[in-house]
Amino acid sequence: MTAEQSERDADFQGFMASRWPRLLRTAYLLTGEQHAAEDLAQTALERAYVAWRRVTQAEDPDAYVRRILVNAHTRRFRNGRRAELPNGATGGGQGPRQQAEARDRIAQTDDRLALLPALLALPPRQRQAVVLRYWEDLSVDEAAAAMGCSTGTIKSQTAKALAKLRRSPALKQQTADTGERAGGTER
Amino acid sequence: MHDDAIDTALPERLAATADQVRITPVPATTVLRAARRRRNGRRLAMGTAALAAGGLLAAGLGVLPEAGEPRQPTTVVVPPATSSPAGPGVTRPSNAVLGEGTADGYRFRVEVDIWGAAADEADVWNQIRAMYESDTEMPFEVENGANYPPVKGEDKLPYTPGKSWYYIYLSVDGNPRVPYGEGQILTGRDDEIHVDGTNLDGNGNEGPDAEARTVELIFGYVPEGIDRAEITWENGTVSKLELVEAAGSTGHWFTAAGPEGGVDPDELRTYDRNGKPAEGYDFTDW
Questions:
Q1: Residues 6+ apart with CB under 8 A from B45
Q2: Using the beta-carbon criterion (under 8 Å), do A50 and B2 form an inter-chain contact?
Q3: Which end of chain B is less enclosed by CB atoms within 10 A, N or C?
Q4: Under DSSP, is residue B184 helix (H, G, I), strand (E, B) or coil?
């Protein structure tokens, strides 16, 4: 291995170490499953390594890698590899009424139980739009760049996704329960 | 009230959900090893392309490799005279078969439907109605109205006249075709390359050799003026594309199937009628 290659690998490994947790979390929101998320994040990094010169020359290397991740996710969906729900994520039999003394912990678990199935029920592009806008906190322009589409498409995909999430019975119920718990705390 | 609460709480809920993933150690070795394989494939492709330019590479599709040689792309055949004789209408699409073949023991067939460009707004509304009645899965730009399908007088015009809609379909083993891509094309120059694709891996990831038999299927469109095109694969092999005409588009359509083993495409190269390289497509961040 030449000195140049060693330097390149060292740079890339530094990048990979600093971005791995974030990429993994984003991939988890897109796939809903631990192993699928690891696989997706890993694929994105492999492709980033191949295109490393372009990544480093990009105005925003994170945006470049994010686009690779979104593209890889889109391809997986088209290939029919939709992730399955993780065990227990259906919410059945794990109600928040249990262990009232551990409300905070349960509340956090409820968020996952309610949101993840609703999120995975969205069409992939709508899911991507929601994750990019509300988890990655990207602007409409940035999300459009990541998904390779127009800003109008981002706006409409996001609006459709939110409308579907609002109709999710589990989310509505969970929101109501959260409100009640918050009220109870104040008292 | 609850609706607003859901919207407001969304970032927090997404964060809580994202935190449920187990942050595993950075798979540095695995990523680097796999990435180097990809990169070396790309280098090999470039070297092979240079040989091809010098006329030293025989373009053999579906030829079994000699020991140590890379697997060749999967054979794609375009049946003769597959384009429907009638030109496309605004309310009735033309159809053309772009390629057929066998991968992982499954027969695949790729075809395109082209809906003629609407001349005016009335044409747009008629076309939407016809797409709906023919069970054509409309793209988001079309279905984005309050009604489905959008209704004149109630929804805004979903798209402007002047471009043809295309829909690419894939069928396997004679089963009903499934949409795999769609978009709009101009009916003249200044159009762009359109590329889409999927994996052909039979019943999915079943069996120990599933990955080894996976074939990457690429299909798309090159605009008018392109006389010859080829796709290079990451193992260095090349697919010479058979360009197919389809009524309603001035460019050409193509299908390519990669070598077994899930070999990714590397680059789409195009040439004009003088053999001069034209704009291509880089699959790096595909």
A1: B232, B233, B234, B235, B236, B266, B267
A2: no
A3: N
A4: strand
Distance from CA of A148 to the nearest CA of B (A): 11
Is residue B169 domain-resident? Answer: yes
The closest CB to that of A111, out of B17, B24, B31, belongs to B17
What is the SS3 assignment for B277?
Answer: strand
Looking at the structure, give the CATH architecture of the domain made up of residues A1-84.
Orthogonal Bundle (1.10)
Q: Do B38 and A80 touch (CB under 8 A)?
A: no
Q: What is the pLDDT along chain B (286 residues), one digit of tens a residue?
A: 455 666 778 999 999 999 999 999 999 888 887 776 655 443 333 334 433 443 333 333 334 445 567 889 999 999 886 656 566 789 999 999 999 999 877 889 999 999 999 999 999 999 999 988 887 877 655 655 566 678 888 888 888 898 889 988 888 888 888 777 777 887 766 678 888 877 776 544 444 555 677 788 899 999 999 999 999 998 999 999 999 998 888 899 999 999 988 788 889 999 999 999 998 888 865 6
Query: B178-186 and B194-200: which strand pairing?
Result: unpaired
Counting the structural domains of chain B, the total is 1
**A45 reaches B (C-beta below 8 A):** yes
The domain of B190 spans 32-117+162-282
Chains A, B: CB contacts within 8 A come to 132
> Touching check for B39 and chain A: CB below 8 Å?
yes
Min Cα separation B1/chain A (Å): 10
Domain-embedded: residue B49: yes
Contact A175 B5 (CB under 8 A): yes
- Per-domain boundaries in chain A: 1-84
Strands B226-233 and B238-240: antiparallel
Q: Is residue B131 one of the residues assigned to a domain?
A: no
Alpha-carbon distance of A105 to A102, in angstroms, equals: 6
B126 domain-assigned:
no
Q: Is B55 buried (19+), middle (13-18) or exposed (0-12) by CB count in 10 A?
A: exposed
Q: What is the pTM of this model?
A: 0.52
Contact status of B67 with chain A (Cβ, < 8 Å): no
Q: Which residues of A touch B198 (CB under 8 A)?
A: 75, 78-79
